[in-house]
Amino acid sequence: MLHHIYMRRCLELASKASGYTAPNPMVGAVIVCNGRIIGEGFHRKYGEPHAEVNAIDSVREKKSLEKSILYVNLEPCSFHGKTPPCVDLIITSRIPHVVVGSTDPNPLVAGRGIEKLRAAGIEVTEHVLEEECERLNIRFNTFHRKHRPYIILKWAQTADGFIDVNRDPNSVGRPTWITGWYEQTLVHKWRTEEQAIMVGTNTAIADNRFLNVRRWQGHQPLRITLDRNLRLPSSLNLFDGSQPTLVFTEKQPPVGAELASAHFHDIKNVQYSTIPFDENLPNHIINELYNRNIISLLIEGGAQLLQTFIDVGLWDEARIFTGKIMFGEGVKAPEIVISD
What are phi and psi for residue 248, nearest 5 degrees? Predict the structure, then answer.
């Protein structure tokens, strides 16, 4: 039971960096000596030191490490990426016992870290609170096991099943709100937890969203939209240059001097990706995002884009708000049919 107590502390520490570590996992580490925590740390941000490094650095009397237990919710890394391998530091610190929550699905690690620890004579205890540890890093795990981002669908619908009123698709407007302040704030919190957020062409025009985080503090996601024929106006809030934006298109976008004579924006902080807009569109999108190391995607609309991903089974969660108001007519909400 003591292993569980300290592993829960690892999970608590790891979750503090939610939204900041991608495409790395969230990891916390705790060092215990004679039943007392003498050091702890977590991976704060992608590119910065890992949890094990921060935990070991926090120990004042380094000699105590030689009679301590290191708890970590994910298998220590065994390769040199942006930072040196944590396994090497654990070995040189002479820590005799390591307790691991779950193994790392990254093929660069995938059990090699644990093997290297044991080869160095270190006792390793595995699978402590494994289910909870897996759940915390479900985005990271999905990315490496399924070779795609973890996909969350989100929409609000009326009591009678509509996602929007009927609107002119060529007019730039504002969202038709179905939910209230609390739900809208919660969505901004959700945005900080995901690496990217996407809407379709008609939603980009009709709602003119910023797709940023304003009602919460945290990571600003990569904004993504579809623009098959490059018809989105440059005045959209998506193109304000305040944060990175990715546009999927079927056309080859103009470059350099050609921009001056086209109706395109100056592409500041905006990238284009040319993909086929065929029956495999969802797969083309997620394959490109996988190649860009995007481990999670929040799809916020519109109905057609959401339904397309639902129909091909490319989704992991659906977060649906149902309001009390009724439209009577309009754009039908997506439908999820779950077979027995």
Answer: -90, 130
pLDDT (mean) for 131-145:
97
Q: What is the DSSP letter of 263?
A: S
Nearest Cα to Cα of residue 200 among 305, 310, 330, 287 = 305
The whole-angstrom separation of Cα 273 and Cα 251 is: 9
Strands 296-301, 196-199: pairing kind: parallel
DSSP β-bridge partners for residue 97? 69, 123
DSSP of 22-67, one letter per residue? Answer: TTSPP-EEEEEETTEEEEEEE--STTSPPHHHHHHHT-S-GGGGGG
- pLDDT over 60 at 72, yes or no: yes
Residues 133, 70 contacting (CB under 8 angstroms): no
**Structural contact between residues 7 and 31, judged by C-beta atoms closer than 8 angstroms:** no
pTM for the model stands at: 0.90
Which residues have a catalytic role annotated? 52
